[in-house]
Amino acid sequence: MKIILFIIQKEFKQIFRNKAMLPLLFVMPFMQLLILSNAASFEIKNIKIGFVNHDNSQTSYKLISKFQSVSIFSLSENFSTIKDAEASMEQGKVDVIVEIPNHLEKKLLNDNQTSLSVIINAIDGAAAGIENVYVTQVIKDFNQSIKSELVMTSFDSENKPYFNVIAIPSFWYNNTLNYKTYMVPGILVLLVTMLTLFLSGMNIVREKEIGTLEQINVTPIKKHQFIVGKLFPFWVIGLLVLTIGLLIAKIVFSIPILGNVFIIYGFAALYLMVILGIGLFISNFTETQQQSMFISWFFMVVFILMSGLFTPIESMPVWAQRITYINPIRYFVEFTRMVMLKGSDFYEVRIHFMIILAYAILVNFLAIWSYKKVN
Amino acid sequence: MPQNTMIKVENLTKTFGNFTAVKGISFDVKKGEIFGFLGANGAGKTTAIKMLIGISKPTRGTAVVAGFDVQTDSEKVKRNIGYMSQKFSMYDDLTIRENIVFFGGIYGLSRQEIKQKTEQLVQELELENYIDQLVISLPLGWKQKLAFSVAMLHEPQIVFLDEPTGGVDPITRRQFWEMIYAKAHTGTTIFVTTHYMDEAEYCDRVSIMVDGSIEALDSPKGLKEIYGVNSMNDVFLKLARNIE
């Protein structure tokens, strides 16, 4: 224990003496948090909408002005023929075309039911889904009796329109949903992970490069003493960065923290051990900081893209979903959302705790085992 | 092993794939001896030292250092030896005092002992005014003397010096050897490699390694007689040339 304290003391001195380190630890992550949280949004704004009005009735004009009054439809244009409208869509000038058929008003009055057609440029599938919901909502809001017939269209490289009828019977949409609430906890997890993985991965390799690791291997120090002493400072820094990040989330972005903060810290403490273990494992198999950095980056990119933060895990192919089971970030992203946004208690996240605990034990066992004082 | 034999090496061999870096070397080093371990670059000196200090496993053969087998008891060996590598291996971004505290600490010295040792060490090296300066700001010669003293902090029975005076000016080299002599007088065994043949003359016994084998082992005086030359430099050249 005493020996570990000497190492920790030395590490902290070196970290805080390094002029590049402090901004890296305490400025960059929070700049990233502030920038990314505002930039990483799935919100669809400024939808360009076109109308083809064959009816020219009172009702049809009312419907159009209803659309125009909704702020997310930024630009509206009237076309005389559906051909013109489609040409405009091919050029990317409109995203959505609403075609109002002949006798819309008449049918509505006589049969109490009518339909109109909606064409959506589905080149970006996710955006098209959301646009569809907006359009449908406006129409429903206007009159329950109008049914929209949806046509999703996208243009391939030869610019030939391809039509596709998609029936979306019900699409859950919460129009008060704030994307920041959803993204900020996840981005915070990524930043804490990146920082601790890179720093721990590079720290031990650095001692290999400058030759001090050899000097340490010649001392009777025990493997676990060295490793605990080396990783503990980064564990503390990880928790510190998490704390500042949570404060920013709460104060700047008003992200609710519904669950117990102690559960979050308990989980983060275990989670950081997994990440630090991975960093150490990487540094055991690399000789230079560059190698370590590249390998860490490789894992980081895979972990981030398969974390479920940017794309839902449920929509990945089954084999990819299986890969996400070994992705520690996946568990932390799920966990933070459950605890922060849903207010889950310990019982509800016990599986996450068990998995991450097992992971921490396994990774650190491998890391200590692969650290060799004798070659 | 007799009481006063500190290092006993028998048929020590290290191979890397097809390449044999150390080819079955054997020798003894006595307590308090200054043992010069010479050889051209690439002759296998560093590989041999790494086996003796327990950071590289021998492929074959045995080496008993300070009474412990490096193959089976390498951690016990480490408790009893000091090591200073050709690569300066203290922390540049720590001060002299912090380096001493750290290395003393990981050898298990108490804070009290470390404090005492620090005072004694800076006094001996006349570094009182620089104790709280970063090591990076010191001249190389000072660093090497400091590294030697730090390697001696835990009072090891044997100290291994791998080219300790590389790149150091003649005055500092002289001072360095005075430090070595002083330690040897207190009974510490010194195992040193060097490329300076004048330094080889200071050793009690010298072995010369060529291509992974020890080609000659005797006192400097004895070696000069055997090869009929006047200086260690000529001994070295003669041996190296024979191989070519």
From TrEMBL, chain A:
GO terms for cellular component: plasma membrane. PROSITE patterns: ABC_TM2. It holds the Pfam family ABC2_membrane_3. The keyword Heme does not apply. It comes from the Bacteria. The chain crosses the membrane at residues 182-205, 232-255, 261-282, 294-313, 351-371. Keywords: Cell membrane, Membrane, Transmembrane, Transmembrane helix, Transport. It is found in: Cell membrane. Gene3D superfamilies: abc type-2 transporter like domain (3.40.1710.10). InterPro entries: ABC-2_transporter_component (IPR051449), ABC2_TM (IPR013525), ABC2_TM_bact-type (IPR047817). It is a multi-pass membrane protein. The keyword Membrane applies. GO terms for molecular function: ABC-type transporter activity. Residues 132-374 form the ABC transmembrane type-2 domain. Its main location: membrane. Belongs to the ABC-2 integral membrane protein family. This is ABC-2 type transport system permease protein. The lineage of its organism: Bacteria, Pseudomonadati, Bacteroidota, Flavobacteriia, Flavobacteriales.
TrEMBL record, chain B:
Its main location: membrane. PROSITE patterns: ABC_TRANSPORTER_2. It is found in: Membrane. SUPFAM superfamilies: P-loop containing nucleoside triphosphate hydrolases. Keywords: ATP-binding, Membrane, Nucleotide-binding, Transmembrane, Transmembrane helix, Transport. Transmembrane segments: none annotated. This is ABC-2 type transport system ATP-binding protein. It comes from Flavobacterium croceum DSM 17960. It comes from the Bacteria. GO terms for molecular function: ATP binding; ATP hydrolysis activity. GO terms for cellular component: membrane. It is a multi-pass membrane protein.
